[in-house]
Amino acid sequence: MGIKIKLAAVAMSILVISGCSNNSQSDDEKNHPTMNHNMEEMDHSTMGDMMEGHMSHDEVVLLNDSTGENELKIPTLLSRDNEEDIVYTVRAQKGKTEIVDGTKTNTYGYNGSFLGPMLRFEKGDTVKIRTINELDEETTFHWHGLEVAADADGGPHDALQPGEEKVIEFEVTQEASTLWFNPHPHGKTSEQVYNGLAGLIYIDDENSKSLQLPNVYGENDVPLIFQDRVFDDENQLNYKSVMNEDGTIGDTLLINGTLNPKLTVNKEKVRLRLLNGSNARNYTFKLNTGDSFVQIATDGGFLNEPVTLNEVTLTPSERAEIVVDFSKLDNGSDLALINEEGTILLPFELSDAGGKVTKVPGVMNDFSLSDEEINLPVTKKIELFGMMNMVSINGKKFDPERIDFTQQQGVTEVWEIYNKPDMMGGMIHPFHIHGAQFKIISRNGETPPENERGWKDSISVAPDETVKIAIQFKHKGVYMFHCHILEHEDNGMMGQVKVE
Ligand SMILES: [Cu+2]
Fold it and tell me: Where would I find the Plastocyanin-like domain in this sequence (predicted)?
């Protein structure tokens, strides 16, 4: 099967992809990690890399349609180590996984060979997690979106060597939300995530339990982890052979690790918890019928009111919870989740069973952004710039010995994040801050769209865009902030804030 390629309008055409035989072209570069770059700014080694077979940012490999032949896998719920205490064990492991029928792919996983279980906490819980590194290389256990002290956060300072373990303990103080966990060892994050290290965290609270939203896990409350990969001729994930310094993109979509997935649903409202778990690809999710759906939650909690949308875009690490109404569909309806190119990501099959009657409440949360927060002066400025291995934040690459900013615990500050374009355009950088949920004040001076008026831990920042956020850290310690294109992160597009 050939790999489909897309060319940007202003192409600096270096198209050297081994094994590619079927290039289709389009002018549409919307929502892709596309970069048209000034050649003069590149050094020779970068050029050499690109000439030797890495993709340039002028083309994005299209995804293949899902054939729908495999029922979607649902991550298992991780049970506690014993009944009395809220203690969990999470092991990073290697293994072999039958992703493609009849063959075993070498993969990484948590408590299994590929991806991980789902950890479900309740607000107010004191949770202990025993993390164990059973890999042959160092790793860390980072809890993306969780508001914990930095020594429990699993940043690059917290590397566990092979065979090492560490127990962390924290209280769940934040509201109901869909978070996730992944490795964060500096320079190795991209490959470890690519090989399969990623898992889900659900937080429940009194509010989420009282809202009567669809909440039957795996039935009408379904997590969807989107990850694109390239399988080689032996059906292996050979990261080094497909790695792109600017973000590794694949032609094959896995959802929850399932190749060619379909989801069987009852005739009811179904809540889909979308997580962009890809190294670099952006997704704009739509229904193939053009029908609308409602978004009910952002990265870190419920929106105040459901927002009706025809599409929602997620950059790497962002989440959105949406509710799709299947209750009025006929059997035989041809319904699928697609992306902006019309690629079928997830076909739905309607079962004969009638579903539960649930309602999306008109009021779900009391998130607020005060005038005081809006009017705070900007006290931290972030400038994202560069491409390939020449990415930087405020002109600097990550240095574990350097603290870039300090901030007082419990004090709200306004950060201004600017994506500085190069002469030929630039690319979207998804920007993530550890250890806190924040609020978007403005995008280019404008109020953010309705579906971003909620708690966020990762934001898309487009070329030449300035995003202002209000952020407060509940805990102390040194936290990372970085681009969530994992290869940019590994290439040093990361800094540190020390909360005192
Ligand atoms: Cu980036």
Answer: 93-207, 246-328, 375-500
Q: Provide the pairing of β-strand 199-204 with 118-122.
A: parallel
Instruction: Give the residue-averaged pLDDT of 326-330.
Output: 88
Mean pLDDT of 69-89: 92
Q: Which DSSP letter does residue 65 get?
A: P
State the Cα–Cα distance between residues 6 and 251, nearest whole angstrom.
12
Q: Beta strand 5-7 with 59-61: parallel, antiparallel or unpaired? A: antiparallel
Average pLDDT of the residues in 40-51: 39
Number of domains in the chain: 3
18 has a pLDDT exceeding 80:
no
**Closest by Cα among 303, 273, 292 to 452:** 303
For residue 339, the Cα-to-chain-centroid distance in whole angstroms is: 16
Check: CB of residue 118 under 8 Å from CB of residue 199.
yes
Distance 55 CA to ligand 1 centre (A): 16
Q: What's the rounded Cα separation, in Å, for the pair 48 and 211?
A: 56
Distance 427 CA to ligand 1 centre (A): 8
Domain stop point among 181, 210, 239? 210
Of 57-71, 147-161, 196-210, least confident by mean pLDDT is: 57-71
Token duo for residue 359: 């309602």
138 CA to middle of ligand 1, Å? 24
Give the per-residue pLDDT at 59. 61
Q: Find the 483 Cα to ligand 1 centroid distance in Å.
A: 5
CA of 374 to the centre of ligand 1 (A): 27
Torsions phi, psi for 259 (to 5 deg): -85, 140
Local structure of 191: helix, strand or coil: helix
The verdict on 81 and 180 lying in the same domain is yes
Residue 248 belongs to what domain range? 221-354
169: helix, strand or coil: strand
The per-residue pLDDT for 423 is: 79
Chosen domain end from 180, 210, 240:
210
Which amino acid does the sequence have at 402? Answer: R
Confidence class for position 33, pLDDT limits 50, 70, 90:
very low
Centre of ligand 1 to C-alpha 428, Å, is 7
User: pLDDT at position 250, please?
Assistant: 97
C-alpha–C-alpha distance, residues 76 and 400, integer Å: 35
